[in-house]
Amino acid sequence: PRHDPRAARASGARGAAAGAARAPALPPAGAPAAAPEGAGAGAARPRRGSGHGPGRAGPDAAAAAAPDQGPCRDGGVRAADPGGGAPPAAAAAARVRRDPRPDRRGAPATAGAAAAAAAVRHRADAAPVILVVPDLDAGRLARAGAEVLGAARHLAGTADAAIMAAFLLAPGEGLRFDPAAAGIDRLAVLQDARLADGLAPPRVAALAALAAATGARHILFAEGEAGGGLGRRLAARLGERPATGVVRIEGGAAVSLAPGGRELRRPLPRVLIVAGDVFAPLPPAGARGEARPVSAPDWTAGPGEARDLGLLPADSARLPLAEAHLVVAGGAGLADWGAFHALAAALGAAEAGSRPACDAGHLPRDRQIGASGAVVAPRAYVALGISGARQHLDGIAACPRVIAVNTDPHCEMLKRADLAIVGDAAAVARALVRRLREGG
Prior knowledge:
Layout: H1 5-22, H2 59-65, E1 70-71, E2 77-78, H3 89-93, H4 101-105, H5 111-118, E3 129-132, E4 136-137, E5 140-141, H6 143-159, E6 162-169, E7 186-191, H7 200-214, E8 218-222, H8 227-238, E9 243-250, E10 253-257, E11 263-267, E12 271-274, E13 292-293, E14 326-330, H9 337-347, E15 350-353, H10 355-359, E16 380-384, H11 390-395, E17 402-406, H12 412-416, E18 419-422, H13 425-437
Parallel strand pairs: 3-6, 3-8, 6-7, 7-13, 8-12, 9-12, 14-15, 14-16, 16-17, 17-18
Antiparallel strand pairs: 1-2, 4-5, 9-10, 10-11
Helix pairs in contact: 7-8, 9-13
C-alpha cells in the first residue's frame, strides 16, 4: 500500500503544536528564574551525554547552570545577565571582539612567496657559460634581446650551463628592467666612456676580453643591424665561423634557413646569430635567474681609424618595420592616402598597411602587417581605416600601445586599441598634420 506523505506532514505539525503547548512559559523580564528540579537537594543532575557521573558537574552542566556567561562564538566574552532575559545594551556594548589582523601581519610568508623565492635557479660557479649580448631599447630589454635570451635558455637546458648577459653601456646609462626575471644567471655590465659612440671596434674588443675571461662556450647575438653586425665582427676577431639566421637548436646542431626555405644544419659553433620571431621571448614560470654580478675585465680597443661622423638621414617611410619605434598603417577604410603619407612624414614613422591596402596597390607588399606579412612590435601603432581582421591583429599582438581610427565603433580594431577614435580616418589624419605643422 502507498502512503500519502501529506498525512505524515500534518501529523508532524500537530505533534509540534502539542509540544509547544506542553512547554513551560518563560518568566517575564526581571522576574527571578525558577530553580531547576533537584536544586533544593543540592545535587546537580548531569546532562545526558555529558560523560560525567552523578555528583560531578561537567562542562555541559556548568554551561546549563550559568547560561549567560562563557565565551562567545566570535572569541569575545558574553556578559552575565542576572535577569535571565536578553542582555542589556551596556552588556552588549561591552562584548570584546578579537582582531585577527595582527596575527596575520606577523604570520610567516605564504606558500606562494616561499615557492617564488625557491624558484630562483642557481648555477654552480664551475658551470659552463653561455654569453648573450641582448639588444636594448632606451635601457629596456628589446624584443630581439628577449628572443636571443630565449635561445640561450634552450641551449643552456641541454648543457646545464649558466646564462651570462653582457650589456655595453656609456657612463650615465643603466638597465630599466629586472635581469633576474628575464632568466639571466650572470650579469656583466661593461660601462665605459669608449662605448658611448656606439662604434664597433671598442665593443668588439670589450666582448672579446669578456669571452676570454669567462671561457664562454657559446656567444649569442640577435640577427639585425646592431647585434648581427657586432656578432659577425666578433666572430672574425676570434677566428670563428658563425652560424647566422639560426631558427632551431637541436641535437647539438644549429639549423638555419637558406633562400627558398632550404634548411642548413651544422654542428654548434661558438658564435650564433639568432633569427627573429623564433624563440620564446619570456622564461617559463619558475625560471627566474640569479642575476649575479660579474666583474668586467680590462680591455683595450687598440689602434683604429673609425670615427663617429654622426647619423645619416633616413627615409622613415622605408625604415624596416622590425626596427621602427612608431608605425602608421592604413587600411581599406582610408580614402586620402596623401594625408596618410603626410602624417607618417610629420611623425617620422614607418609606413605600413593591411592586406587589402597592399592588394589595392596603395603600399608595396613588404609593408603588409599581419600573419601573412610582417609581425611588428613598435612602441606605438597607429591604425587608420583598418577594421581589424584576425590575421592583422596577430601581426600587432606584441604592440604595447595601439591607436585606431575607424567609422565603425564595433570593429575589432577599436576593441583592440588603447585609444579608439570613432570618425573618418582621412579627416583625422589631415587634422593631425595641421596640428603638427603648427607646432602642437
